[in-house]
């Protein structure tokens, strides 16, 4: 009897003779060579963010300065010696149900691997899980919201009322905590700062798409209390055909974010924020590739997933004459309930076996408590510094009925319960010192200590399936950089960084004779980087280029054991090397072009794997080429004898082919995404009406893949959505 299991789909150790190669991106190359190439090398930012500042008297225009907090203080992006991409709220709204896809759509060398609800993760420069993460802490990219670290379970957060997203490449453990081996992503939300902001947005489109959002913000008590809140509701019909059920891929979302800020004490701000999300869907567990009428599912019963997330954050800031003190206390509660039928008739037909229902159920819960206390230099001080301490406690629980959670004959008759609890303590510091007029030296480090405990038990109190294990680890991470300022507008840098992930216990699995296996070793890595940042043509052109090499040891990977028919986990060394070229340019007043190109060469090493030989294969889910370009044009509507102004936004993304698994069984197909938006805004800027098209080419991007006995299976992104929207401010 064949059993389809849950952990990472099916992977085998032989190659597929029908493996595809990527087609050259002739369209994009022509576009770059024909006049855009000279500006495709700088920092990618929103194509819909206000692009210019205008001096009304002189008529001179220039790009806005982009301020980031990548080093825990406000800095001009062009002065930070790191490769960073900033993604705006407007670009996030191009994928309101899947902000992870919107982030990578604007970020070269960044991938969003979306296997199923609650099983999504980021990859930066090819540094990621080699398969699927084996628990919700098994990440290589730190994901934070307003500086509060989140787990992989909440990485699919809808990101309501966001100001921007900062994508930081290279190890970021010094300031962003555990599991920042490949980089870090920090979501910066709009804060209750007292500014009056009352607006509503409504969108309706094809495939039953509809979204409504309301934002209320302003001052409540003069000079004392400010408030802000946002709510969003949305629905989208399924767009994946299903032989035996309703269409799959449906989504229903409800989200809230709100906060209060107390400013009644001199030089002190106290901010309390809260958030809630409910996300319900019926995405299929997998799809058989290359079937007639693809994408189509042969699942025998309809899957269901419900994710809920809630939390609160208390931030206290006090300004002293020489430094700033910040305390950030946070609590998060995440839940994921999923029911899937792991059998698909279309798959079993290809294997020549009769299909049978193989439903599995997972209930995951986690409570996360975090605290950070830090001291910073004041904004603009010549020497930038930060020191601090952090603590995090995670209480996780998984209840599972699945072939991956118990051996035969128990897997469909027993409920396994797994507790995974961890405590992480850290001390960190970072400083940048200018010297000899043009030079700046930066150095920083963190010392972390992890305590992790895993306990497994079962509903029938079977002793052989009951057990526990624990581990403790103390480890350093750090980064140093040397920058040289050739002029006020051009600087270069070199950097060296050390990254470290936590040790890993798989959530899937069971004790053997009452013994829980030891954890997999922590992934570690060294990253070498050099870059240049330039602001040219009277600040109308910004360029950002970087080259890098990552040497990773003990990357955790998932594989199928053909003898047992179940998944195992081991570890593998690998290297990645490449570059990013990013840029934005103000071509003329009202017309801004942005773009980015990323290249990554990845290669698995010979050390670590105990199940097969994969040395020389590419890292799963890592394309060689990624490209993003955008255009935003704003002008008066007077040429059409209309009041107000007109806007046109266009965006293009290319992602090349990439290995589906560690065995390089087949490649996920390259894809091209095109988005457009055309709008009219009245003279008072209080009303905007717009039309939009998302994924206009209707390409079903393959977001994950695996192989079972020669049959290719994948997950896919959503198809084309076209519609109308309205934003009204009051």
TrEMBL record:
Keywords, sorted A to Z: Cell outer membrane, Ion transport, Iron, Iron transport, Membrane, Receptor, TonB box, Transmembrane, Transmembrane beta strand, Transport
Entries under Gene3D superfamilies matching the protein: TonB-dependent receptor, beta-barrel domain
Any one Gene Ontology cellular component term annotated for this protein: cell outer membrane
Cellular compartments annotated: Cell outer membrane
Limits of the TonB-dependent receptor-like beta-barrel domain: 263-696
Domain TonB-dependent receptor plug as annotated: residue spans: 77-184
GO biological process terms on file: iron ion transport
Coiled-coil regions listed in the entry: none
Annotated InterPro entries: Beta-barrel_TonB, Beta-barrel_TonB_sf, Plug_dom, TonB-dep_rcpt-like
Pfam families for the chain: Plug (PF07715), TonB_dep_Rec_b-barrel (PF00593)
Topology versus the membrane: Multi-pass membrane protein
Ion transport recorded as keyword: yes
Record carries keyword 4Fe-4S: no
PROSITE patterns per the UniProt record, alphabetical: TONB_DEPENDENT_REC_3
Family membership: Belongs to the TonB-dependent receptor family.
Protein name listed in UniProt: TonB-dependent receptor
Source species of the chain: Sphingomonas populi
